[in-house]
Amino acid sequence: MIYLDNATTTGPKPQEVYQAVSTCLQRIGGNPGRGMHEGAHLATNIIEQARVELAGLFNAPSSSHIIFTLNATDAMNTALQGLLVPGQHVVTTCMEHNAVSRPLRYLESIGVKVTLIPCDRCGRLNIDKMKKVISEGVDAVVMIHASNITGTIMPVYEIGQYAAKYNTKFIVDASQTAGVEDIDVVKMAVTALIFSGHKGLLGPQGTGGLYLKEGITIRPLRFGGTGTLSESDQQPEEMPERLESGSPNTPGIAGLLAGVRFIREIGIENIRHKEKEFTTRLLNGLSNIKGVTIYGPQNLVEHTAVVSFTINNVTIKNINNALAQEFDIACRSGLHCAPWAHQTIGTIHTGTIRFSPGYFNTTEDIDQALDAVRKVAQRARQ
């Protein structure tokens, strides 16, 4: 199989990730923070080491403000519902994933004002419009770091600094960029950074979390046992316990720890360089196939490793079926849980095919995928 669906979840992962999950399940088995036996201590150590590695990756000042959640969607709900209250005003972009749009629509229904900032057909943000709305007074900005449809990298550093100027909370969805693009939460002036563990960070599914800036008060999404202050029936105030109720996914976090260590050892710049090469090859190859329309910027500086396209006179379903069944290519088709983005780029009624290469792909994978698209497009013209 040629796996080009890394924006959904990384397919091949480092062997260290598989080994870490297996070792945790077979040899540790303890519950972190719940017991004095060796297994509990080893499990606690895994969780804390993962916090430290992630803090280092994101340049977070304190590892205690790395919070583990069920996934990035859970983290986004924790941030949005924990930081916003009725009567407040939040601004976002029209390229957001449903992990942002659906919680915002819920918050809107209970009295939070939501303003959408337009983007162009390539998914580029109208920066001047965003800055104007911020300067007029809003409580929070929430935006994606890079689109999961067009791959468009948003100007998060510029917007973060501008939001800080007006004491506006800044929430960034780094689900598609963590582990691939440079992220510095201090330079970005981030209030909350949401990350997915199973995409660019190379960990297992069911992992994710958020970085929360020190000094920020947030309401927990869940309440319950934390392994600390068991004598009290009140939720702890300290981080990270305040936002981590219930037993964590220790085997998953062990795999995530291995994935982050792999990234830091290889070097994020080397991973990004390889993925950019594949993205360039896809963009160039697809642009030379008659009948193919590519969505998103052609400038690689503003493009992460996500490429969406359609083929004239062929439905998305039929393209996907041909790629999967005839050519054994794994990719994603449809609306990708992002209707706002598809409305923006004009594909809300059709969807797109999405290729998302990863570090473990090869040049041969890309060339074979391009050849497959070429054959499907040729058939459509006959």
Explain how this protein is built.
The protein has 382 residues and is an alpha/beta fold. It folds into 2 domains: 2-10 and 268-381, Aspartate Aminotransferase, domain 1, CATH 3.90.1150; 15-266, 3-Layer(aba) Sandwich (Aspartate Aminotransferase, domain 2), CATH 3.40.640. The protein contains 11 helices and 13 strands. The chain has helices spanning 15-28, 38-58, 72-83, 98-109, 127-135, 156-165, 250-266, 268-287, 316-325, 339-345, 363-381; strands spanning 2-3, 66-69, 89-93, 113-117, 140-144, 169-173, 192-196, 208-212, 292-295, 307-311, 329-330, 332-334, 352-355. It has a 7-stranded mixed β-sheet with strand order 2-8-7-6-5-3-4, sandwiched between helices. A 4-stranded antiparallel β-sheet has the order 9-10-13-12, with helices on one face. Strands 1-11 form a two-stranded parallel ribbon. It is globular, with a radius of gyration of 21 Å.
